[in-house]
Amino acid sequence: MNELKFIFTGPPGAGKTTAISSISEIPPVASDVATTDDLAEIKQTTTVAMDFGEVTLPDGQILHLYGTPGQRRFRHMWEILAQGALGLIILCDNSRPDPIADMDIYLENFAQLIEQTGAVVAVNRMETPNSPTLEDYYTHLQDIGLILPVLAADPREREDMLMLLDTLITTLEYV
Ligand SMILES: Nc1nc2c(ncn2[C@@H]2O[C@H](COP(=O)(O)OP(=O)(O)OP(=O)(O)O)[C@@H](O)[C@H]2O)c(=O)[nH]1
Ligand SMILES: [Mg+2]
């Protein structure tokens, strides 16, 4: 049987490692090391290779969840992790300077996967003052010819993350 595999991606600190640890029914596998650069001001660790977790779907199948490193310098892992994936979740951190430009980086890098399968966009830290609305994300996606679901979701909340998986699965059923 083919592996059922979803990928979480997005910029450093968006919450990919957090999301997988919120959802996973097995102890998640992480590959975090201490942050040393500018990122150290925001958080203590960063992913250098991948995150891994598992969740059982309502039909009993096991879904494998992989998280990419956010940092560009580890981008060689993005392609490796995307192989054989059935869908993509792009996490956006609305407190970053230009979160829509962040989204574009991952849309571009995973364009082939998105075209072949599907993707959802999840935005956290929505309470950030003067930050984009969900409508802004959606409009931008439309402008570049993509119709993807855009949701507000907190990676620390398991229910939010399960809702994302559900949305992605529903999207894929219509591809
Ligand atoms: N307050 C708040 N904190 C959040 C929210 N979403 C994520 N976080 C926090 O942001 C941090 C995200 O860290 P990670 O999960 O390591 O981020 P990552 O995307 O894996 O980052 P890299 O591996 O460096 O690419 C965690 O400390 C989360 O608790 C949110 O909506 N609100
Ligand atoms: Mg991480």
UniProtKB/TrEMBL annotation:
Recorded superkingdom: Bacteria
Keywords: GTP-binding, Hydrolase, Nucleotide-binding
Molecular function in Gene Ontology: GTP binding; hydrolase activity
Keyword Metal-binding (UniProt): no
Pfam families from the UniProt entry: ATP_bind_1
Family according to the record: Belongs to the GPN-loop GTPase family.
PANTHER family, A to Z: ATP/GTP-BINDING PROTEIN-RELATED (PTHR42708), GLIDING MOTILITY PROTEIN MGLA (PTHR42708:SF1)
Protein name in the entry: GTP-binding protein
Organism: Acidihalobacter prosperus
